[in-house]
Design brief:
- The chain contains three helices and ten strands, in the order αββαβββαβββββ.
- β7 and β8 form a beta hairpin.
- It is globular and about 45 Å long.
- By secondary structure, it is α+β, with helices and mostly antiparallel strands.
- The strands form three sheets. It has a six-stranded mixed sheet, sandwiched between helices. It has a two-stranded antiparallel sheet with strand order 1-2. Strands 9-10 form a two-stranded antiparallel sheet.
Length: about 200
């Protein structure tokens, strides 16, 4: 008769199954076949991360913030979910797709060229279930690229975390603004975004 067990012993040498680490060139080959047509993915540290299945709070906050960016910078400079390049040493295994970016020049001038870190005024992620990932992995990736300003709209925390002054692979200035405060991007210091506007009372 089978014996009930509460815990299955795991050998000390047991490891997770091997994962396939991807490069941008490999992903480009697969994308050309159309295999990823129904997917919404970004490549981070050699792993394909799904950006599908965003919850409604994420969508609402992203739209609200993007409309504000368009009002401040103009529709030709604010992009929604556009891939970017990062630091040369990170580019082979990374192609992030931030929720939104602000360009230094009109998007029409890029053609098929991916924006470089030096082309960016601001990078924004709206974090609902990915707060830790966006504040650690993404922040380090963008800091190494020298992206001058990176915002994380923390939906569960009802705050905006502003990263500035990238040096030696990390942001030297990280400030969290509560929903009672406002923050202005470096590229538009006279245009303040009131964080509470993204979190209306229920």
């Amino acid at each position: 008769m089978p014996t009930a067990v509460t815990e299955i012993p795991v050998p000390a040498a047991a490891q997770d199954p091997p994962r396939k680490r991807w490069t941008r060139s490999e992903c480009a080959v697969i994308e050309a076949t159309g295999l990823f047509d129904q997917e919404h993915l970004e490549l981070i540290d050699g792993e394909l991360i799904s950006k599908m299945g965003k919850k409604r709070p994420h969508v609402e906050k992203a739209v609200w913030l993007f409309v504000w960016l368009v009002q401040v910078f103009g529709a030709k400079f604010a992009n929604f979910e556009a891939p970017i390049d990062v630091a040369p040493e990170d580019n082979p295994t990374n192609e992030p797709v931030p929720d939104m970016i602000v360009l230094k020049r009109s998007y029409s001038g890029f053609g098929s060229v991916t924006p470089q870190p030096g082309d960016l005024e601001l990078v924004v992620e709206v974090a609902d279930t990915s707060v830790t990932f966006d504040l650690t992995v993404k922040a380090a990736l963008y800091a190494r690229a020298g992206i001058v300003e990176y915002w994380v709209l923390d939906v569960p925390g009802r705050r905006l975390v502003v990263h500035r002054d990238p040096q030696d692979g990390r942001y030297r200035s990280i400030v969290a603004f509560s929903e009672d405060e406002s923050a202005a991007p470096l590229a538009a210091p006279d245009s303040a975004f009131r964080i509470g506007d993204a979190f209306p009372l229920l």
